[in-house]
Amino acid sequence: MSKYIFVTGGVVSSVGKGITVASVGTILKNRQITVSVQKLDPYLNVDPGTMSPYQHGEVFVTQDGAETDLDLGNYERFIDVNLTAESNVTSGQIYSEVIAKERRGDYLGGTIQVVPHVTGEIKERFKRLAQSSQAEVVIIEIGGTVGDIEGQPFLEAIRQMRNDVGRENVLYVHVTLLPYLSSTQELKTKPTQHSVNELRRMGIQPDIIICRSDYPISEGTRDKISLFCDVKQQAVISLPTVSTIYEVPLILEDAGLGQLIVSQLSLKAEPPDLSQWQEIVRGLKECHETVTITLVGKYVELKDAYYSVREALHHAALYHNKDINLLWVQSEDLERDDGEALLRSTQGILVPGGFGIRGIEGMVKAARYARNNKIPYLGLCLGMQVMVIEFARFALGSEKANSTEFNATTPYPVIDLLPEQKETTNKGGTMRLGNYPCQLIDDSQAAKAYGQGLVYERHRHRFEFNNEFRSRLQEAGMIYSGLSPDERLVEVCELANHPWMVSCQFHPEFGSRPGRPHPLFRDFIGVAKNVLREGAQPPLPLSSSL
Ligand code: GLN
Asked: What pLDDT, on a 0 to 100 scale, did the predictor assign at position 252?
């Protein structure tokens, strides 16, 4: 039977709970304990797929095609597992299920209530994941902050679990913030005391408190939290802000968290081995030469909207012993007459995914700039569609070439709705989602990157390359380097006569891992790092005859 670790957050959101959960997974996995992870999102949406990236950040897509919270991306990258739809539970899903059951008559005669029906449905999801994953430990993160109205049924459900599966099988971890007061130069514990009180009001006494702060906490502060919150002194763990998130598992391990969890849950464990992880962190913290990459997107004000893309770039740079100098360009800014100046120093251009017409012309301009100036270009999903639009305008000699997403009546609809999307009216969960196969053609840049012919990648789109235009663009120099095995869909395209302009209809960023960069990102950086741009100084020739 699985054991459960429930992780709640206190004081403020964005305190690093997701990274903490991912790191707990890492340190358990490195003790040869099998783990699975689940994120509970108390909002009423069924999934984040219909939310604006400004509201929610990136939507992370699992292999089985679920649109999920971006924390799942961190779980996958840290624990190196491929999760499924079962790992993200929202209030929307829970209430939809309870109401569907009520309509079916499953509760005939009963009054449907938050306790026990809603909490029962939540607990069912915990148990379902435990069953399907067969993990020794299931780590469950409760989204939001203790005290949120929407979070109450979830807290009540995790409280009940201690009785349901036995006290010895459940651990409560509270991640909280210790604010620093510069006037008195101290970290304050009072907000943490209050949030633990709030938890206790719900019947939950935390076993471990992880203290996020900008500075390490002193012994005195630990004693105080231990005393007021009734937690053993060694179970008050300090987690100061660090330069790379990948260092968090090492810090928690050093603080004794792994041993504490193993003994509290009486787990069978091997000695921890974090050597691979230490290697990655050492590489990330070393100073390297930088590669300047420009990300041209429409949601760039919120970096979390491109979370996995940014991580994948860092993984790829680490492979080449480089650091990324990532320039974020709002695509609308490129639409100005002098917009191209924003690209003058870049060594590589990346256009990520997105929806809707705003900023599209700026992205097209970026693709044109990359093509004309032979700057490496990586297009992801929308980024591929933009590359096709730009190339079609050049090849067909008409600026009217477009996607029907942005111009329904264009005479050159080079990107159009997938046929199976034409009848779709519901917006939620109806895109082409999750893993699909892609056959790469020999000798293409894409095939060289992957080193194999058949690959599976994660998708999230409604529009596709319009096959009517395949031959005309091919004649002008476009190569269809990846197709669906039935050859119906263009999955990867690239340009002949260009050092590296490669785009894909899928989202390779979701498959990248620290220490195992995605091949397309790896080769994109591999080419970009050798590009010399304005202001860059080429190495001087060292010749004795000079
Ligand atoms: N809007 C485009 C489509 O639906 C691209 C989607 C994306 O970039 N994820 O096909």
From this structure: 97
d(CA 359, CA 356): 8
pLDDT band at 419 (very low <50, low <70, confident <90, very high): confident
pTM for the full model? 0.94
Distance (Å) from CA 364 to ligand 1 centroid: 15
Q: What is the mean pLDDT of residues 388-394?
A: 98
Residue 116, preceding bond cis, omega within 30 degrees? yes
Q: How far apart are CA 506 and CA 433, in angstroms?
A: 9
Residues whose beta carbon lies within 6 Å of some atom of ligand 1: 353-355, 381-382, 385, 405, 460-463
Residue nearest to atom 3 of ligand 1 (CA): 461
pLDDT tier for residue 13 given thresholds of 50, 70 and 90: confident
- Kindly list the catalytic residues: 381, 507, 509
Tell me what the mean pLDDT of segment 15-30 comes to. Answer: 95
40-69 residue pLDDT tens: 999 999 999 999 888 889 999 999 999 999
Amino acid at 292: T
Question: What is the rounded CA–CA span in Å between residue 280 and residue 442?
Answer: 32
CB neighbours (10 Å) of residue 299?
A: 23
pLDDT, tens digit, 9 for 90 and up, residues 355-382:
999 999 999 999 999 999 999 999 999 9
Ligand 1, atom nearest to 460 Cα: 9
Which of 59, 460, 510 for mutating ligand 1's site (highest number of atoms within 8 Å of CB)? 460
Q: What is the distance between the alpha carbons of residues 264 and 280, in angstroms, rounded to a whole number?
A: 29
Nearest-atom number in ligand 1 for the CA of 356 is 1
E strand segments, 60-107: 60-61, 67-68, 88-90
What 3 state SS string does 64-76 have?
A: CCCEECCHHHHHH
The pLDDT of residue 546: 46
CA distance 433 to 490: 16
Residue 545 has pLDDT above 60, yes or no: no
Q: Residues of the chain with pLDDT > 70: what percent? A: 98
> Would you list the DSSP string of 340-408?
GGGGTT-SEEEE----SSTTHHHHHHHHHHHHHHT--EEEETHHHHHHHHHHHHHHHT-TT-EETTT-T
Instruction: Produce one character per residue of 184-210: b if its CB has 16 or more CB atoms within 10 Å, e if not.
Output: eeebbbeebbebbebbeebebebbbbb
Contacts of 537 (CB under 8 A, 6+ apart): none
Cα 353 to averaged position of ligand 1 atoms, centre (Å): 6
- Tokens representing 77 are 């990258």
Residues in the chain, overall count = 546
Average pLDDT across the chain, whole number: 94
Q: In angstroms, what is the span from residue 352 Cα to ligand 1's centroid?
A: 10
Measured in angstroms, how far is the CA atom of residue 58 from the centroid of ligand 1? 13
Closest ligand 1 atom to Cα of 353: 8
Q: How confident is the model at residue 185 (pLDDT cuts 50, 70, 90)?
A: confident
Nearest atom (ligand 1) to Cα of 383: 8
Distance 463 CA to ligand 1 centre (A): 6
